[in-house]
Design a protein that fits this description.
12 strands, 38% helix, alpha/beta, single chain, Isopropylmalate Dehydrogenase, 12 helices, 2 domains
Amino acid sequence: MSSLPRLVLTPGEPAGIGPDLAIMACQREWPFELVIAGDPANLRNRAQKIGLPLTLRDYEPAADPQPSLGGHAVICHQKLNVPARAGELDPSNATAVLAALDRACDGCLSGEFAAMVTGPVHKGAINDAGVPFSGHTEYLAQRCSVAQPVMLLVAGELRVALVTTHLALRDVPGSITADRLTAVLKQLVPGLAARFGIPQPYVLVLGLNPHAGEAGHLGREEIEIIGPVLDQLREQGMQIEGPLPADTAFTPPFLQRADAVLAMYHDQGLAVLKHAGFGRAVNVTLGLPIIRTSVDHGTALDLAGTGEAEPGSLIAALELASQIAERRR
């Protein structure tokens, strides 16, 4: 293995702010080789539009990785199907977006890349192209043949994981099963240890219902499903507390003793996480055989090509991916 890691970045939706953010990230020097899996013409056009310098060098897999220099980028050619216009979605490019993800993921699986970092994709544009797509997490899990990935959002010391991800709210209760909850916790706890170097993670587990069901008066999922699973896993040595009401768990006295919070559904956990750390939060997928981090926001079509997008979340995602990769080495 080279002494210098090589990370791959997918800009995501070519009409969104992903290309802008990738170019902004390339203005920095990095202690690793950063390879962008994207369309060089799109990056050059967007760099000109936002007024930032960008010199592209073709990616050479056989060459030794070199530190990334400010204003320079290494490009792994992933040509778009049609030219992209900032702020204007075109489903014709959906397959190209997914092809870039496939290239990055396969490169991580083979050991070519130490980690992948993903920019925001537009789920609607991909689905409008006739490709069923619920999100990066699910797509990469399928690509890696993983049955139960775990979405973990990180903002400083606050870490929030999810039992269910991109589901309609009406579908959530039926998806909270003993098997699913057990599988998620068995990915989350060792994932915290492996990815973040936490020897014995302590996890707060939320209930599904208000007041964690209030002894069955507001729902019985806590009594019939969540509580029994936690009891069983505690007997196996996991340090987990719950089920807790969400409005109790997300208070300083509880968070101070926790390494992570496990929420039952998307907005239950991520509304708090994004309030606490929007613009610097990172999405980490646990349970994959590869390292994958991502931004915590969407494509922001209205900001694409304006130069006003904030790269903080992408910078944090690159930094965290690099740290995890170093820990893995």
